[in-house]
Amino acid sequence: MAVILILLTLLLPVLPTSAAGLTLEIEGRYQSPGGAVMIHGSTEPLVNVSLVVISSLGETLLNTTIEADEEGEYSITLTLGVDVPPGIYQVYVEAEGETAEGSFTVVSALNTLAENLINIANRSRGEVEAMLDQLSQAGVEIPEEAMEGYETALTALEEALKALEEGELDSAIEEAMEALKHFKEALQHLSEEVPPPPAEAAAEEIRGLRVAIERAYEFAERVRDLAEKLEEGYEVGEALSLLEEAEAHLAEAERLLEEGDVDGAARELAWARGLLGRAWALLQVAMTPVREMRIGRFLNHTEKRIEALKARIEALRDEIPEEKLNRSLEKLEEVADSLAIGQNWKEDQRIILFVKLNPGYTLTEDLEDRIRKTLRREASPRHVPALIIEVPDIPYTLNMKKVESAVTNIIHGRPVVNRDALINPDSLEYYESILPMLQQGE
Fold this sequence. Notes:
By secondary structure, this protein is an alpha+beta fold. The chain has four domains: 2-106, Macroglobulin (MG2) domain (Immunoglobulin-like); 110-191; 199-286, Substrate Binding Domain Of Dnak, Chain:A, Domain 2 (Up-down Bundle), CATH 1.20.1270; 317-438, GMP Synthetase, Chain A, domain 3 (2-Layer Sandwich). It has 13 helices and eleven strands.
């Protein structure tokens, strides 16, 4: 999970300052539980600066107001608890009607994280080299930008390995991420040179884009509904402006898709998603103007979660009927395969659902919500998993039977025997790589 969180930071936009005078800086991109985060910036002299830190689970870690000094500088040190969960933490500041936002990432087991990122970078290197061979054999000229990105990534990967050997874990993580970024850019340039796919594959890509645009419109409706609820008494003008811009990009994406410009439609969709995300974040900040109200909501929410967890622990005492689970998930077009495992957890058990998705889909919050609702409706509340994790493959025996025991052994730290009896033993490597995340909080 830590690797996934770091990879997500590669895709998240860096927004350290606002368009006006308010600035925000965060010292260090990575922190360990128990570490200290320095948050500082500048604004108008002697004004109040509202500062909110929210975890990836939506929980408020900090909500306070500080005063800028006579030079307009403000700063605060946030000491993390030793039990804070890993994740991406969003930081929002507001002063005199201006806003700025940024983020930092909390990870544990930095050594394991650095090694995993280097391994992923090595796999990306293999993908680039395979595509280079494919294009060379087809007689296609290799783009100069792709070669530059590939060579830059190789240099960064070498630096990451060197830093890892010297015990400089932060540097190893930074260099590995740099390598991943440039390998990704090289792949993008090389992909543009790949001959057009067969008509059937192109049609499938168009269908996937249509579905993605429809879902973006649905999310836009959620943003608009929230803005309308907050409009009286809250400043939502900027969020509404971003929403209108996003809807214009979605309309353009639809037009380009109808004209057959798949790449153009994909770019417009990406712009729209980014704008919708920013609008949603602004509305979330606008929803929390009163600290006491936020604390009360948080405490009520925590109480409800504790009660829900107690009920779930009781429900998890029953075994998971695989056949019933599979029948329920077959109704979701995104899910290609799945495997549910009971993990010993805090003197009880919890369900972890591993899902392999069909090409073109990713595990979004919306999909997770629909999976849980489907299982609750089609099976029963006790089948609703505590965690849903996307995996590249589900292990099977040579007789094409799912191998629950191997994954169960891995998540409990036990050795796996008879790997030769599996048709895809390499699939177990991913489960082993996320073991530290699955053991968090035991």
